[in-house]
Amino acid sequence: MDAWGTGDVRWTSIQKDQLKRVRQDYGLDASPRWFLFQGRNLNASGTNIPSPAFIQERLRSLGAPRLEVLGHFLSQHPESIMARTERFNLLRNRLPQPRLEVAFRLDAEAALLPVTHAGAWSPSGDAWSSAAQRVLPKLEEKLRHWPSDLGAWRAWIAWSELSPQMPKAAALADTLEPWPTLHFEAAQLIAGQLRNRGDWKGLQQYAQIHWDALVERAHPIHPAIPQLDPRLATELGIWLTFLEEAYQAQGQAAAVDLLRTKFTELALRKPTRP
What would the pLDDT profile of 38-66 be if each residue is shown by its tens digit? Predict the structure, then answer.
């Protein structure tokens, strides 16, 4: 039954009024039974528990499952990123399932897709570590050509967690060309990795650089500019949150108070002290 997922077939109980109508429509007795519907049409029914082989046969009579169609297509066109991405998404919803994980890993590697936890399943083992060491250089090459590719950043960060070396996105960002500049959302992803790893000192240093750059853009405070640009205020608020988490984790509450005071000063467009 590997080829069928929740989008193809699902198990459910039938309501009493619906059960009564089905029995009347198809001339069935009152014995306990199961039903296989295609939409509202009854495809099969019985009083004994059906075998997986029987269910599979009945489902095949309705057409080949999408996963099987994609598998056949990819056997002839393994380079198709679109097909691999579609199969990757189908397989992700069916994990954990050891028989499907190999195809899932091959699709993730071929299409350079981010791999993260899926319910109770998480990528682990030597096969994933080896795949990560092959995937990361390819993603790094993409990021060197276009540092603001958010999809590539998400994938690189996800795969970096599977690598034995556990490389840091912040260290990679430091090696990129200064233009085109790093997108704000990409910088957030990098900060998020530092936070998730509990690297509070690294997060403090990284967030401080971005905070200082935004503070410089927000100055000077002038009566002719009645309010802080909303986008600038949003970005300041996000970096403030990162800094608060980093300083609090290091037991530096006084630094947090100073940052909050500065943010209030910038938001109100006037000094909070004489």
Answer: 777 777 888 888 888 888 788 777 778 88
